[in-house]
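Why do we care about 3D structure at all? Because function follows from shape, and shape follows, mostly, from sequence. That is the central idea of this module. The next example makes it concrete: a single protein chain, its amino acid sequence, and then its structure expressed as tokens.
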Amino acid sequence: MKALIQRVSQGQVSINGQVRSSIGGGLVVLLGITQDDGTEDIEWLARKIVNLRIFNDEAGLMNRSLLETGGDILLISQFTLHASVKKGNRPSFIKAARPEAAVPLYEQAIARLEAELGKKIGVGEFGADMQVSLTNDGPVTIMIDTKEKE
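And the structure:
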């Protein structure tokens, strides 16, 4: 499971020209799920996301977590995070989980992030053609892969 995490001052996702979800300050998380991912990946990743100390403290240092700032999360499914471009120029998405496996894990990720954060999060729609807009704050962008927990 991969998550591309961006600290934002605002973010939103639209589907067919209609805003589905929007947040103020917090994190936009693009989530890619593989066929090898499971509940343990979700639990580890959710704890990591809400506890990442990437928000500024009074001294301007990245020392505060999302839990401490009260920020929000906008979670977007993003199978293209698992694109392979080893051969040729056309990306292969063979590592990305099929919808029948990925949708239940995406729904578990939503529930787990809400439990860890203690409130509802914003979401997109799995498999939809979405338009995501955000203002990256910092910029701060971090990639986490649950298969590389070093």
